[in-house]
Design goal:
four-stranded antiparallel sheet, 9 helices, single chain, Jelly Rolls, alpha+beta, about 200 residues, 8 strands
């Protein structure tokens, strides 16, 4: 996607925000598209969280290395859903380096928004503060759904809730990733999947 496609994409993605020409122009100066290849790292652990990304094409996931040295999947991301925003909100709010690695599951195109650049525009365009909030709001919704999923008492309940909330995850990502995310052993996951 090139710069000539940026305006139509912004207009479509933020249609309900009704950006005027001057706001569109200023926003287009701080947004960038970046393509990553399959398995490439999008954001490293230990980095400061200073970018919000929207997935335009492809899919990605985040993971952490737990205390036992096991990689655990912590989130999934793909376009046109609550999960299209790639952003480590937790570490951003705590003003600490990211504890997660974000990686492309397949080739992915991201629209990157530098948070500091948006904040510099607040004085001239106070509405951009609403834009930041609007982008971050889905993180709260996802957090609430994740709490409900991960607090479910049985593996079957966890899988059913995840399927209800985010059915596309089961079409995009391998079952081993989903089992890791849910904290369920792969064999248990496969057994439950054959029974539901």
């Amino acid at each position: 996607m090139n710069i000539s496609m940026l305006y139509p994409y912004i207009t479509q993605k933020f249609a309900h925000f009704n950006l005027n020409e001057e706001e569109m122009y200023e926003l287009s100066k701080i947004l960038t598209f970046k393509k990553f290849h399959r398995k490439e790292i999008l954001f490293f652990d230990g980095e400061r969280v200073n970018t919000i990304a929207l997935i335009v094409e492809g899919s990605a996931y985040s993971s952490i290395l737990d205390v036992d040295g096991v990689v655990r999947i912590t989130s999934f991301h793909y376009p046109s859903s609550l999960l299209e925003i790639v952003f480590n909100y937790e570490d951003y709010l705590q003003n600490m380096p990211s504890q997660k690695i974000y990686r492309a599951y397949e080739d992915v195109l991201l629209l990157l928004l530098d948070i500091a650049a948006v904040k510099r525009l607040y004085e001239k365009f106070p509405r951009f503060y609403q834009l930041e909030l609007m982008i971050m709001e889905p993180n709260f919704v996802i957090a609430l759904k994740n709490v409900r999923i991960l607090q479910a008492k049985t593996a079957t309940d966890k899988i059913k809730l995840l399927k209800d909330y985010f059915p596309q995850i089961f079409q995009i990502f391998p079952y081993s990733y989903i089992a890791s995310y849910l904290g369920i052993h792969r064999n248990t996951f496969k057994k439950v999947m054959t029974s539901i």
